[in-house]
Design brief:
This protein is an alpha/beta fold and 309 residues long. It contains ten helices and nine strands. The longest helix has 18 residues. The structure holds guanosine-5'-triphosphate.
């Protein structure tokens, strides 16, 4: 689609478009919010913290505006090299954005990571908004206190109180964002909801299933790559993915007794990938040991992260 066609697609009115960076502690609900606003599952949602590693964009249309959300990895105190890369990527995303949106888990408040994030935000020059999430779990007077404390630390343009889970407050937030973005042609065709290549999205889905099943045994020492993607004449697709782990012992865990774990992961992932693609999927999972992948610059690049020196 050319810029001209895109302008016409929005009914001839002047279009707006831009990038909104989502910043927030792990588990604040960033993925849930992006999925709600975009209306499709583009970003991985899981109970486990630190599941979002690379920036995944969800694209929403609201009135004449196209809003591109950059779902950033959770910002927290970095310990390992991989963790440091995640933090750097998250702040890097904020610098490219037109609006920076801080999402706070209202139940958890400003304790711990949120405090460190507020400090970091003071250095970010773009317009910033505060979004208190999970308001379905917190009393209104607590929310007001929280809003006052956060606004004292950072100069936010606006404060919103929402529930990403049930959608309350989300329309007001979208109205605001649509008006806050600069005038200009849309960045993406109207029907595109994510620029994450399907291969990567399919790998993210398998990683999510792996986490959901094995999170206690296999914390963060695993990574999934889609190695083959073959469209077949019968309309189905054959996908081969490799789950990389760091040690032989982890390989055993990923396979499970009699291959039971990998079978369950594969079934769940296949079902979801097939739903998204709207075509039958044959999914083949392999588990390989690759020692110290967590220190390998190439792996970082594949995940869309900068390698911290
Ligand atoms: N009650 C309630 N729960 C929510 C709400 N929004 C998100 N959650 C839950 O909070 C948990 C974390 O949500 P995610 O969307 O995965 O959080 P995230 O910020 O993307 O997490 P990371 O990827 O770890 O950075 C999930 O169990 C969500 O269902 C909300 O508005 N209300």
């Amino acid at each position: 689609m050319t810029d001209k066609e895109i302008d016409t697609a929005a009914g001839g009115a002047q279009t707006r478009s831009g990038f909104v960076a989502l910043i927030g502690a792990t588990n604040a609900g960033k993925s849930t919010l992006v999925n709600r606003l975009v209306g499709a599952k583009v970003s991985i949602v899981s109970h486990k913290v630190q599941t979002t590693r690379a920036i995944i964009r969800g694209i929403a249309i609201h009135g004449n505006a196209q809003i591109v959300f950059m779902d950033t990895p959770g910002i927290f105190k970095p310990r390992r090299r991989l963790d440091r890369a995640m933090v750097t990527t998250a702040w890097g995303g904020a610098k490219d954005a037109d609006v920076v949106m801080l999402l706070i888990d209202s139940e958890r408040g400003l304790k711990g990571d949120a405090e460190a994030i507020l400090e970091g935000l003071k250095e970010v020059p773009q317009p910033k908004i505060l979004v208190l999430n999970k308001v379905d779990r917190v009393r209104p007077e607590e929310l007001l206190k929280l809003a006052a404390a956060a606004n004292e630390a950072v100069a936010f343009e606006r404060t919103f109180m929402i529930s990403a889970l049930n959608g309350s407050g989300c329309d007001d937030l979208m109205d605001y964002l649509a008006k806050a973005l600069p005038e200009g042609p849309w960045y993406y065709p109207e029907d595109q909801i994510s620029d994450l290549p399907m291969r990567q999205l399919a790998a993210e889905i398998t990683r999510e299933k792996l986490f959901l099943r094995l999170h206690q045994e296999l914390p963060y020492a695993s990574h999934v790559e889609t190695e083959k993607w073959e469209e077949r004449k019968d309309g189905s697709v054959r996908i081969e993915q490799v789950i990389y782990v760091e040690r032989e012992s982890q390989k055993k865990i990923a396979l499970g007794k009699g291959g039971e774990a990998i079978k369950a992961i594969s079934t769940a992932a296949r079902k979801e990938i097939s739903e998204i693609l709207e075509q039958p999927v044959h999914l083949f999972l392999f588990v390989k040991v690759r020692e110290n992948w967590g220190d390998d610059p190439e792996r970082f690049r594949e995940m869309g992260l900068d390698f911290p020196r």
